[in-house]
Amino acid sequence: MHRNMPPLNAIRAFEAVARHEHLGRAADELNVTHSAVSQQLKHLEEWFEQELFSRVKGRLYLNSAGQELLSGYTQALDLMQDTTELLLRRGPGDHLTLHSDPAFFSKVLMPLGDVARSADSGVTLDVKTATISGSAFPETADIVITHSKHDNWRNVHREHLLDVHGFPACAPSLLERYDRPNRPLDLRRLPLLHGADRDSWNSWLVEYAGSTSAGCANTYYDDFSMTINAAVRGRGAILADPVLCEYELETGQLVPLFNNTILEVSYYAFCTNLKYSTRAVRRAFDNIVKMLRTHDATIRAKEQNREPAHRPWDTASTAPRLD
Protein backbone atom coordinates (compact mmCIF):
# COMPACT_ATOMS: atom_id res chain seq x y z
CA MET A 1 0.00 0.00 0.00
CA HIS A 2 1.36 3.40 -0.97
CA ARG A 3 1.40 5.85 1.97
CA ASN A 4 1.08 9.51 1.06
CA MET A 5 3.47 10.86 3.69
CA PRO A 6 6.44 13.24 3.83
CA PRO A 7 9.92 11.74 4.35
CA LEU A 8 10.59 10.32 7.84
CA ASN A 9 13.73 12.42 8.29
CA ALA A 10 11.68 15.56 7.77
CA ILE A 11 9.12 14.37 10.33
CA ARG A 12 11.85 13.65 12.89
CA ALA A 13 13.45 17.06 12.33
CA PHE A 14 10.08 18.81 12.67
CA GLU A 15 9.23 17.00 15.94
CA ALA A 16 12.64 17.73 17.47
CA VAL A 17 12.56 21.42 16.56
CA ALA A 18 8.98 21.76 17.82
CA ARG A 19 9.94 20.16 21.12
CA HIS A 20 13.08 22.21 21.66
CA GLU A 21 11.89 25.39 19.91
CA HIS A 22 15.49 25.67 18.82
CA LEU A 23 17.28 24.52 15.64
CA GLY A 24 20.66 24.02 17.30
CA ARG A 25 19.41 21.77 20.12
CA ALA A 26 17.33 19.76 17.65
CA ALA A 27 20.41 19.31 15.45
CA ASP A 28 22.45 18.10 18.43
CA GLU A 29 19.78 15.55 19.35
CA LEU A 30 19.57 14.24 15.78
CA ASN A 31 23.36 14.34 15.38
CA VAL A 32 23.18 16.38 12.16
CA THR A 33 24.16 19.91 11.19
CA HIS A 34 22.12 23.02 11.84
CA SER A 35 21.67 23.56 8.11
CA ALA A 36 20.51 19.97 7.60
CA VAL A 37 17.67 20.46 10.10
CA SER A 38 16.74 23.77 8.50
CA GLN A 39 16.67 22.11 5.09
CA GLN A 40 14.39 19.30 6.37
CA LEU A 41 11.94 21.87 7.77
CA LYS A 42 11.92 23.65 4.43
CA HIS A 43 11.18 20.37 2.62
CA LEU A 44 8.33 19.60 5.02
CA GLU A 45 6.70 23.01 4.60
CA GLU A 46 7.04 22.69 0.83
CA TRP A 47 5.45 19.24 1.02
CA PHE A 48 2.43 20.63 2.89
CA GLU A 49 2.50 23.86 0.88
CA GLN A 50 2.16 25.95 4.04
CA GLU A 51 4.27 27.25 6.88
CA LEU A 52 4.33 25.26 10.12
CA PHE A 53 6.33 27.71 12.26
CA SER A 54 6.24 31.37 13.10
CA ARG A 55 9.70 32.92 13.13
CA VAL A 56 10.16 35.60 15.77
CA LYS A 57 13.57 37.14 16.56
CA GLY A 58 15.48 34.08 15.48
CA ARG A 59 13.25 31.61 17.33
CA LEU A 60 10.73 29.15 15.95
CA TYR A 61 7.21 28.78 17.33
CA LEU A 62 4.58 26.39 16.08
CA ASN A 63 1.60 27.98 14.37
CA SER A 64 -1.85 26.34 14.46
CA ALA A 65 -1.06 24.01 11.54
CA GLY A 66 2.21 22.97 13.16
CA GLN A 67 0.52 22.28 16.51
CA GLU A 68 -2.04 20.04 14.85
CA LEU A 69 0.70 18.14 13.04
CA LEU A 70 2.86 17.78 16.15
CA SER A 71 0.22 15.95 18.17
CA GLY A 72 -0.14 13.10 15.69
CA TYR A 73 3.52 12.88 14.77
CA THR A 74 4.63 12.73 18.42
CA GLN A 75 2.31 9.79 19.10
CA ALA A 76 3.50 8.03 15.95
CA LEU A 77 7.19 8.49 16.80
CA ASP A 78 6.61 7.35 20.40
CA LEU A 79 4.93 4.20 19.12
CA MET A 80 7.79 3.56 16.70
CA GLN A 81 10.32 3.94 19.52
CA ASP A 82 8.38 1.64 21.87
CA THR A 83 8.00 -0.99 19.16
CA THR A 84 11.71 -0.79 18.33
CA GLU A 85 12.73 -1.19 21.97
CA LEU A 86 10.30 -4.06 22.43
CA LEU A 87 11.68 -5.94 19.43
CA LEU A 88 15.24 -5.36 20.62
CA ARG A 89 14.28 -6.92 23.95
CA ARG A 90 12.64 -9.94 22.33
CA GLY A 91 14.74 -12.69 20.90
CA PRO A 92 15.56 -16.38 21.24
CA GLY A 93 16.19 -17.23 24.89
CA ASP A 94 14.93 -13.86 26.11
CA HIS A 95 12.84 -13.44 29.22
CA LEU A 96 9.49 -12.07 30.37
CA THR A 97 9.17 -10.04 33.55
CA LEU A 98 6.18 -10.59 35.83
CA HIS A 99 5.50 -8.08 38.61
CA SER A 100 3.18 -9.44 41.29
CA ASP A 101 1.79 -8.42 44.64
CA PRO A 102 4.09 -10.27 47.12
CA ALA A 103 1.32 -12.04 49.05
CA PHE A 104 -0.49 -13.11 45.90
CA PHE A 105 2.62 -14.65 44.43
CA SER A 106 3.75 -16.47 47.58
CA LYS A 107 0.30 -17.67 48.68
CA VAL A 108 -1.39 -18.31 45.30
CA LEU A 109 0.88 -18.35 42.26
CA MET A 110 3.81 -20.21 43.78
CA PRO A 111 1.76 -23.10 45.24
CA LEU A 112 0.05 -23.58 41.88
CA GLY A 113 3.45 -24.31 40.34
CA ASP A 114 2.37 -23.62 36.76
CA VAL A 115 3.63 -20.06 36.40
CA ALA A 116 6.93 -20.90 34.72
CA ARG A 117 5.15 -23.12 32.20
CA SER A 118 2.89 -20.25 31.17
CA ALA A 119 5.64 -18.83 28.95
CA ASP A 120 6.87 -20.28 25.66
CA SER A 121 9.64 -22.84 25.67
CA GLY A 122 13.02 -21.14 25.78
CA VAL A 123 11.65 -17.98 27.42
CA THR A 124 12.71 -17.35 31.01
CA LEU A 125 10.11 -15.90 33.38
CA ASP A 126 11.61 -13.29 35.70
CA VAL A 127 9.37 -12.71 38.74
CA LYS A 128 9.58 -9.52 40.79
CA THR A 129 7.45 -9.10 43.92
CA ALA A 130 6.71 -5.57 45.02
CA THR A 131 3.75 -3.41 45.90
CA ILE A 132 2.57 -1.92 42.61
CA SER A 133 1.82 1.79 42.65
CA GLY A 134 2.26 4.78 40.41
CA SER A 135 0.38 6.53 37.66
CA ALA A 136 1.74 4.40 34.81
CA PHE A 137 2.41 0.76 33.98
CA PRO A 138 5.91 -0.18 35.28
CA GLU A 139 8.42 0.19 32.47
CA THR A 140 10.38 -2.91 33.50
CA ALA A 141 7.33 -5.20 33.56
CA ASP A 142 5.76 -7.29 30.82
CA ILE A 143 2.87 -8.53 32.97
CA VAL A 144 1.57 -7.09 36.25
CA ILE A 145 -0.73 -8.77 38.79
CA THR A 146 -2.08 -6.54 41.53
CA HIS A 147 -5.14 -5.84 43.64
CA SER A 148 -5.88 -2.42 42.19
CA LYS A 149 -7.86 -1.68 39.05
CA HIS A 150 -5.50 1.15 38.02
CA ASP A 151 -8.04 3.04 35.94
CA ASN A 152 -5.38 5.72 35.38
CA TRP A 153 -3.12 3.35 33.41
CA ARG A 154 -3.42 4.06 29.72
CA ASN A 155 -3.06 1.75 26.71
CA VAL A 156 -3.18 -1.42 28.79
CA HIS A 157 -4.91 -4.77 28.39
CA ARG A 158 -6.61 -5.66 31.70
CA GLU A 159 -8.30 -8.87 32.83
CA HIS A 160 -10.18 -9.44 36.08
CA LEU A 161 -8.82 -12.54 37.85
CA LEU A 162 -10.72 -13.09 41.08
CA ASP A 163 -12.34 -11.45 44.10
CA VAL A 164 -11.22 -11.93 47.69
CA HIS A 165 -13.96 -12.16 50.34
CA GLY A 166 -12.74 -12.09 53.94
CA PHE A 167 -14.21 -13.26 57.23
CA PRO A 168 -12.84 -12.97 60.80
CA ALA A 169 -10.42 -15.69 61.85
CA CYS A 170 -7.56 -16.22 64.26
CA ALA A 171 -5.11 -18.81 65.55
CA PRO A 172 -6.40 -21.10 68.33
CA SER A 173 -3.60 -19.79 70.54
CA LEU A 174 -5.09 -16.28 70.50
CA LEU A 175 -8.24 -17.59 72.18
CA GLU A 176 -6.17 -18.87 75.07
CA ARG A 177 -5.39 -15.26 75.99
CA TYR A 178 -8.63 -13.48 75.10
CA ASP A 179 -12.30 -14.06 75.78
CA ARG A 180 -14.11 -15.89 73.01
CA PRO A 181 -16.16 -13.53 70.82
CA ASN A 182 -19.84 -14.49 70.86
CA ARG A 183 -21.07 -11.60 68.71
CA PRO A 184 -19.38 -9.46 66.04
CA LEU A 185 -18.97 -6.46 68.37
CA ASP A 186 -16.80 -8.61 70.68
CA LEU A 187 -14.08 -8.61 68.03
CA ARG A 188 -13.16 -5.07 69.05
CA ARG A 189 -11.57 -6.59 72.16
CA LEU A 190 -9.06 -8.53 70.06
CA PRO A 191 -5.92 -7.17 68.40
CA LEU A 192 -6.81 -6.60 64.74
CA LEU A 193 -4.29 -7.33 61.98
CA HIS A 194 -4.60 -5.40 58.71
CA GLY A 195 -3.20 -5.80 55.20
CA ALA A 196 -2.22 -3.13 52.70
CA ASP A 197 -5.83 -2.12 51.95
CA ARG A 198 -6.05 -0.88 55.60
CA ASP A 199 -9.84 -0.46 55.55
CA SER A 200 -11.28 -3.99 55.43
CA TRP A 201 -11.62 -4.47 59.18
CA ASN A 202 -13.35 -1.13 59.53
CA SER A 203 -15.76 -2.02 56.72
CA TRP A 204 -16.52 -5.43 58.26
CA LEU A 205 -17.24 -3.94 61.70
CA VAL A 206 -19.45 -1.25 60.20
CA GLU A 207 -21.39 -3.86 58.24
CA TYR A 208 -21.86 -6.51 60.92
CA ALA A 209 -21.19 -4.89 64.31
CA GLY A 210 -22.47 -1.35 63.79
CA SER A 211 -19.07 -0.08 64.91
CA THR A 212 -15.62 0.75 63.54
CA SER A 213 -12.02 -0.31 64.10
CA ALA A 214 -11.16 3.08 65.61
CA GLY A 215 -9.77 2.66 69.11
CA CYS A 216 -8.93 -1.03 68.59
CA ALA A 217 -5.44 -2.47 68.91
CA ASN A 218 -4.66 -2.20 65.20
CA THR A 219 -1.47 -3.40 63.48
CA TYR A 220 -0.88 -2.69 59.79
CA TYR A 221 1.33 -4.60 57.34
CA ASP A 222 2.12 -3.56 53.77
CA ASP A 223 2.45 -7.23 52.72
CA PHE A 224 -0.56 -9.44 53.45
CA SER A 225 1.61 -12.55 53.76
CA MET A 226 3.13 -10.86 56.83
CA THR A 227 -0.40 -10.31 58.15
CA ILE A 228 -1.13 -14.02 57.72
CA ASN A 229 2.10 -15.03 59.47
CA ALA A 230 1.32 -12.72 62.38
CA ALA A 231 -2.18 -14.18 62.70
CA VAL A 232 -0.86 -17.77 62.67
CA ARG A 233 1.49 -16.81 65.52
CA GLY A 234 -1.46 -15.60 67.55
CA ARG A 235 -0.69 -11.90 67.28
CA GLY A 236 -4.29 -10.95 66.47
CA ALA A 237 -7.44 -11.59 64.43
CA ILE A 238 -7.36 -11.40 60.65
CA LEU A 239 -9.90 -11.12 57.86
CA ALA A 240 -9.00 -14.44 56.28
CA ASP A 241 -10.12 -15.75 52.91
CA PRO A 242 -10.00 -19.08 51.03
CA VAL A 243 -7.74 -17.63 48.32
CA LEU A 244 -4.75 -16.23 50.20
CA CYS A 245 -5.29 -18.21 53.43
CA GLU A 246 -6.27 -21.54 51.88
CA TYR A 247 -3.47 -23.57 53.49
CA GLU A 248 -3.78 -21.99 56.93
CA LEU A 249 -7.54 -22.56 57.02
CA GLU A 250 -7.35 -26.15 55.77
CA THR A 251 -4.66 -27.09 58.33
CA GLY A 252 -6.42 -25.39 61.25
CA GLN A 253 -3.68 -22.81 61.80
CA LEU A 254 -6.47 -20.25 61.41
CA VAL A 255 -10.03 -20.91 62.57
CA PRO A 256 -13.10 -18.89 61.55
CA LEU A 257 -14.71 -16.67 64.17
CA PHE A 258 -17.76 -15.71 62.13
CA ASN A 259 -18.99 -16.68 58.68
CA ASN A 260 -19.98 -13.17 57.57
CA THR A 261 -17.84 -12.05 54.63
CA ILE A 262 -16.97 -8.78 52.99
CA LEU A 263 -15.32 -8.05 49.64
CA GLU A 264 -11.78 -7.01 50.46
CA VAL A 265 -9.95 -6.70 47.14
CA SER A 266 -10.12 -7.80 43.51
CA TYR A 267 -7.07 -8.98 41.61
CA TYR A 268 -6.30 -8.01 38.01
CA ALA A 269 -3.68 -8.88 35.40
CA PHE A 270 -2.27 -6.08 33.24
CA CYS A 271 -0.16 -5.84 30.12
CA THR A 272 0.40 -2.93 27.77
CA ASN A 273 -1.45 -3.21 24.49
CA LEU A 274 1.86 -3.05 22.65
CA LYS A 275 3.42 -5.93 24.60
CA TYR A 276 0.22 -7.97 24.41
CA SER A 277 0.51 -7.81 20.63
CA THR A 278 3.66 -9.96 20.79
CA ARG A 279 3.18 -13.73 20.76
CA ALA A 280 5.40 -14.52 23.76
CA VAL A 281 3.77 -12.01 26.11
CA ARG A 282 0.24 -12.73 24.90
CA ARG A 283 0.67 -16.48 25.39
CA ALA A 284 2.07 -16.08 28.91
CA PHE A 285 -0.58 -13.52 29.86
CA ASP A 286 -3.48 -15.62 28.58
CA ASN A 287 -2.15 -18.77 30.25
CA ILE A 288 -1.77 -17.03 33.61
CA VAL A 289 -5.29 -15.60 33.39
CA LYS A 290 -6.74 -19.02 32.47
CA MET A 291 -4.83 -20.75 35.27
CA LEU A 292 -5.97 -18.31 37.95
CA ARG A 293 -9.59 -18.26 36.82
CA THR A 294 -9.64 -22.07 36.92
CA HIS A 295 -8.14 -21.99 40.41
CA ASP A 296 -10.73 -19.45 41.54
CA ALA A 297 -13.58 -21.57 40.16
CA THR A 298 -12.22 -24.58 42.08
CA ILE A 299 -12.08 -22.60 45.32
CA ARG A 300 -15.59 -21.22 44.87
CA ALA A 301 -16.95 -24.72 44.19
CA LYS A 302 -15.32 -26.02 47.36
CA GLU A 303 -16.73 -23.13 49.39
CA GLN A 304 -20.24 -23.69 48.07
CA ASN A 305 -20.14 -27.36 49.06
CA ARG A 306 -18.53 -26.79 52.45
CA GLU A 307 -20.53 -26.86 55.66
CA PRO A 308 -20.53 -23.59 57.64
CA ALA A 309 -17.30 -23.41 59.60
CA HIS A 310 -17.54 -24.04 63.33
CA ARG A 311 -15.54 -22.35 66.03
CA PRO A 312 -13.43 -24.67 68.21
CA TRP A 313 -15.51 -23.99 71.32
CA ASP A 314 -18.91 -24.59 69.68
CA THR A 315 -20.76 -27.75 70.64
CA ALA A 316 -23.07 -29.66 68.33
CA SER A 317 -26.06 -27.94 69.86
CA THR A 318 -24.67 -24.41 69.66
CA ALA A 319 -22.78 -24.56 66.35
CA PRO A 320 -25.45 -24.18 63.64
CA ARG A 321 -25.01 -20.45 63.22
CA LEU A 322 -22.00 -18.21 63.76
CA ASP A 323 -23.32 -14.89 62.54
Automatic annotation (TrEMBL):
Residue ranges of the region described as Disordered: 299-323
Homology family: Belongs to the LysR transcriptional regulatory family.
Native source species: Shimia isoporae
Protein name, UniProt field: LysR family glycine cleavage system transcriptional activator
Record bears the keyword Transmembrane helix: no
Keywords from the named record: DNA-binding, Transcription, Transcription regulation
An example Gene Ontology biological process: DNA-templated transcription
Pfam families assigned to the protein according to its UniProt record, in alphabetical order: HTH_1, LysR_substrate
Amino acid composition bias (Basic and acidic residues), ranges on this chain: 299-313
Keyword DNA-binding: yes
InterPro entries reported in the protein's UniProt record: LysR-type_TF_proteobact-type, LysR_HTH_N, LysR_subst-bd, WH-like_DNA-bd_sf, WH_DNA-bd_sf
GO molecular function: DNA-binding transcription factor activity; sequence-specific DNA binding
